[in-house]
């Protein structure tokens, strides 16, 4: 029988966890990302087992995304039709991801796999975010504080897919196969990494699907709610790695933080904030890489009966 690790035994201060959840919720509301790509590594840094950090992070992301999505819903910035297609793909991907997660667990390699995947993904995503942020800032300085225009277009193979549908709020006429496949990819990542997938979903919706910027963040949060909810259920029933106390503490801060993030997104210029986020993501990737390569003080840890 699996026993969840009590939060007290993890030596993690409850207030710190709540504040961490609040910071991640803030990012969720501002950028339309679930925030798990930062929550999970930070929990690992505190000494929480990666498998528990992944599952509990997904639980917290669900609540934080509900808070942010409701705020965008009230502004009429959620494309429910597009969100439904993304959710369908996400649920299918979550099923595949759970099979992979359980296989790695049985091999005893889940902790190493999670860390390696995070180093690769955060390094790539952080590098791309940093490049875009610096390019935008340079363009603003050159053009007299006027943001360069972005062309809304989807890639040729997406335009060639059959069975096109109209997504009015997103301003698109494309095949639902493209967002379905995108949702499936995010579903797999949500299970294995404990992420909402927004850090991949948002750029993909803009640059691959060509969605209207006004509907991107709200629609991303909408799909995160349902996909992470399904992932939480899978983790709780299959891998049994959800620490409910940890998840609730993260959720307490995340729900409030998301509301502040939504408000800030309406008032602040995003260029410098994206630069700061890119630097944070790269810093987390470097810290995880160091943890993977340096020899720990104790090579083996013995756990007594719970």
UniProtKB/TrEMBL annotation:
<feature type="transmembrane region" description="Helical">
    <location>
        <begin position="44"/>
        <end position="73"/>
    </location>
</feature>
<dbReference type="InterPro" id="IPR002781">
    <property type="entry name" value="TM_pro_TauE-like"/>
</dbReference>
<dbReference type="InterPro" id="IPR051598">
    <property type="entry name" value="TSUP/Inactive_protease-like"/>
</dbReference>
<dbReference type="Pfam" id="PF01925">
    <property type="entry name" value="TauE"/>
</dbReference>
<feature type="transmembrane region" description="Helical">
    <location>
        <begin position="216"/>
        <end position="238"/>
    </location>
</feature>
<protein>
    <recommendedName>
        <fullName>Probable membrane transporter protein</fullName>
    </recommendedName>
</protein>
<keyword id="KW-0472">Membrane</keyword>
<feature type="transmembrane region" description="Helical">
    <location>
        <begin position="180"/>
        <end position="209"/>
    </location>
</feature>
<feature type="transmembrane region" description="Helical">
    <location>
        <begin position="110"/>
        <end position="130"/>
    </location>
</feature>
<keyword id="KW-1003">Cell membrane</keyword>
<comment type="similarity">
    <text>Belongs to the 4-toluene sulfonate uptake permease (TSUP) (TC 2.A.102) family.</text>
</comment>
<keyword id="KW-0812">Transmembrane</keyword>
<dbReference type="GO" id="GO:0005886">
    <property type="term" value="C:plasma membrane"/>
</dbReference>
<feature type="transmembrane region" description="Helical">
    <location>
        <begin position="244"/>
        <end position="265"/>
    </location>
</feature>
<feature type="transmembrane region" description="Helical">
    <location>
        <begin position="85"/>
        <end position="104"/>
    </location>
</feature>
<keyword id="KW-1133">Transmembrane helix</keyword>
<feature type="transmembrane region" description="Helical">
    <location>
        <begin position="12"/>
        <end position="38"/>
    </location>
</feature>
<feature type="transmembrane region" description="Helical">
    <location>
        <begin position="277"/>
        <end position="303"/>
    </location>
</feature>
